[in-house]
Amino acid sequence: MKEKLKPIGFMFLIAAFFGGATTALHLTSQPTVQRNRRLLEQRAYLEVFGMLDPERRTGAAEIAETVERQLNFEETVRDPETGEEIALIKAFSDPEQKELKGYAIRFAGMGVWGPVEGLLAVTPDLEHTMGLVIIAQAETPGLGGRIADPVFTEPFFDGLLVARPEEGDRFIIIGGMAPDHQESRRRHVEAITGATQTSLAMGRMINQRLRAFHRAMAARE
Description:
five-stranded antiparallel sheet; alpha+beta; single chain; 221 residues; 19% strand
């Protein structure tokens, strides 16, 4: 009987050893994981406002200092239609926070394969975009996953029109033929080739967020 139990005991010891090692590795790596996650988030905040110099590598300390001195996360606004609280990320052109650079809001929704999360920044008058950054997505690499690439995000850094449109119209038009109407053309973004459904999903979630944001900011005034 003892001989039969030896292999079981050995397997138990092996499992306990590797289980303990895995747990220890997980626990000891958590601070590093949290720091990296925080850094990526802070980079996204600055990137969406065009506050990172693409020509040079910006260190973590400088990023954290810029976020601390030139961004403000204290204000929320309420959408009067849904009652939702929308957190405002306010960026300033100066460390004294006297000159407002723009607002950023978070948006989220379902893509084709999973949740998509991002940041959208607009000018202080709420009329033009300043940038768009995808924080998380699970779309197909090389297809829908390109929503995080410049091929999709670049137009948002070029100042798309997002002033309140006519009743029933869209803030942003993603995909389809370029509209004939001049104002609509200024709202148009090309869909990603081969990822029509992901592009349409992005259009839905961004438009939904912009509608709520404009309502909340109008109520704020």
